[in-house]
Fold:
Amino acid sequence: MAVRTRVAAPPRDTGSQKALRERNIALVMTTLRAQGPQTQAALARASGLSTGTVSSIVRELEATGLVATAFAISSGRRSVEVRLAPDPRVVVGVDIGRTHMRMLGWDVGRRPFGEAYTTLEPGHEPFDTLPLAAEMLQRMLDEHHVDRSRVIRCGVALPASLEPGTGRVVQASVLPNWAGVNLMSALRDALGLPVVLENDANLGALAHYGVGMQSGAHSLVYVKVATGVGVGLSIDGVVYRSSSGITGEIGHIPVVDNGELCYCGNRGCLETLVSTRRLVADLKRTRPGHAWDVAEVVRASQNGDVMVHRLLYDAGVALGLAIAPICNLLSPDVVVLGGPLVGGGRPLLDGMVSTVRQRALPSATAHITFALTDLGDASEVQGACLLALHDALVR
Structure:
């Protein structure tokens, strides 16, 4: 006898009706993937949704070709059996950073079919990088025998705040040579595909809501520490976006009076204390005989290097100065720390949490789960795939 598991339904009293509908659709699809074909009544029991809601969702999914239905006999009664329809469509996620480009292919069931990675020169230009992205995409599709016509959307993550509609970079801290470019148009032209763009920290938040160990969290803050420092916020799987495109730029919050001059023009910004550039520079100054880079910082931390642990912990303490007010303002359920430094273990997280506990209201932080990312370096590109799926199939 097949074992049936119950997939917990999301809370009914949170978020907009649109967000609730999208979560219910995702719940029905997840249940079908986990448990296989079943009647609408069994699907309602397994998902925890009402039979009326399931019936409505099934009609919608059948109209879009995602599920198929057929009459069946269950317990002596005529009923409607629902099964996932074969779907050849795929999406592609692209994560473009200061020194890397990562690509991932998913089918509509979130199953990966291919990935690619390359390093980029710091200061790379968009009209050099985008043709390279097109070449990587074609190689990945060819390698896995996926016809380009099956790609329904490409999601792109960028470490920058982006103007809604055009995708123009409006805060060019990490990618200065990309400022002012209409990236939506440039990416469509380069890739020959429908494209949707988003800030990488926002997509990190979306990935952890959708596929990480913290999936389904009502309110989730994703903190990315890399060349810059940014935050993404997910509320019931909906990423917060401003009308200006500027969100999550905590790296330019001044945390030290009369501190080091930041390239944004202010002094004592968080990025002058916490970014990978600062940590690598500190180690090059204090240990000049060693070839330091981010990967070496991570290796040293993994090997128990006391000085590196102290630098990471102190950076976390500074990071907590910016995160504590966010916790007071939002009191989120989960705060996830990501970026290349988290491979070095807990010192960065421990320093951040210690400051947050000291400076934020205990009542605002008592329930918060603080965690290192469980998605590694792939959180942003997985978020890009989720964004592409949502834009193509749900919106």
Summary: The first strand starts at residue 38 and ends at 39. Residues 1-14 have pLDDT under 50 and may be disordered.
